[in-house]
Amino acid sequence: MRVVSLFCGAGGLDLGFIQAGHEIVWANDIYADAVETYRRNIGDHVVCGDITAQKSADIPDCDIVVGGFPCQGFSVANTKRHAGDSRNVLYRELLRVIRDKRPVFFLAENVKGLLHFDGGRAFKRIIADFTKAGYRVAYRLFNAADFGVPQRRERIIIVGTRIDVNFDFSFPAPTHARDGRGGLSRWKGVADALSVLPDPNLPNDIPNHVYSRYKLNFNGYLGHRPLDPSMPAPTVTARGDDRGGVVILPHPNAERRMTGRELATVQGFPLDFGFSGNLSSVYRQIGNAVPPPLAKAIAECFPERRPE
């Protein structure tokens, strides 16, 4: 089906939809480096600019609108989060496009913290807004590790089906489990996932395979905790900005930070998916992305063709 993607970032969510057989016909993000990464890997249908300046009439008609609307205001990793954070209302732009374009489906993605932010009132308001727009709304909390991603990344996925459409959407069942129970595969360990990559200190031609020299100091704070090599990595974050200050996970060997390529591998990006911008920007783009394998699993739950 035809998909419009808002807040597309570097394209993790869109890549999953493409891998599931859908077509992205238009995408938008305000972050120039992420848009360049998207254009480099996915296509020229991406528009760089503030979503508030994009007129609905200029957006192509589509079957699905997807959007991982900015989550930093909701994230539990943001110690300064508050209900008045301007980023918290950007979902209204997603809502605006859904109301105007009337797609058969929509998908919204956000952090686990959205469920409890502002005492749960923000999430209830969001669900009510989507329902009033004319959609049957369902949501589920996913852990990317349950779908073969070597990272324990929890995200809330909200799916809407237009009320006049005869289709019952069902979320995907996990393919992996922590201990492999129920006939599922075991969670993928971070060391195993990174074993395909060479030592970044040796000559190589792998894109983005360089790492931050910021000193490791295992003090228990975010980005300063040793990893269990046999388990999926903790959540890759996007704290900081493209000028520096991003929080980067340590390598399982506890001797250095992960490279951009290693962090992208932890997110489930293909090895040939290159990121544009400086190292801090690369880290930030990866941290903001939806793991493509999780996106693909969810995208496969939509029908191949527009339901009548």
Query: Which structural class fits the helix and strand makeup?
Result: alpha/beta
H-E string? EHEHEEHEHEEEEHHHH
Number of strands: 9
Shape: globular
Spans of at least 5 consecutive residues whose pLDDT stays below 50 are 75-87
Distance between the termini: 13 Å
- The multimeric state of the shown protein is single chain
Helical amount among residues, as a percent range? 10-25%
Defining traits:
alpha/beta; single chain; 308 residues; two-stranded parallel ribbon; globular; Rossmann fold; 8 helices; 7-stranded mixed sheet
Q: What is this entry, summarized?
A:
The protein has a domain of 186 residues: Rossmann fold. It has 8 helices and 9 strands.
Structural notes for this entry:
- The protein is of the alpha/beta class and about 300 residues long.
- It has a domain of about 190 residues: Vaccinia Virus protein VP39 (Rossmann fold), CATH 3.40.50.
- The strands form two sheets. It has a seven-stranded mixed beta sheet, sandwiched between helices. The protein has a two-stranded parallel ribbon with strand order 8-9.
- Helix 1 links the parallel strand 1 and strand 2.
- Helix 6 runs parallel beside helix 7.
- The longest helix has 12 residues.
Topology diagram in text:
Layout: E1 2-6, H1 12-19, E2 23-29, H2 32-41, E3 46-48, E4 64-67, H3 91-101, E5 105-111, H4 121-132, E6 135-143, E7 154-162, E8 176-177, E9 185-186, H5 190-194, H6 260-267, H7 279-288, H8 292-299
Parallel strand pairs: 1-2, 1-4, 2-3, 4-5, 8-9
Antiparallel strand pairs: 5-7, 6-7
Helix pairs in contact: 1-8, 6-7
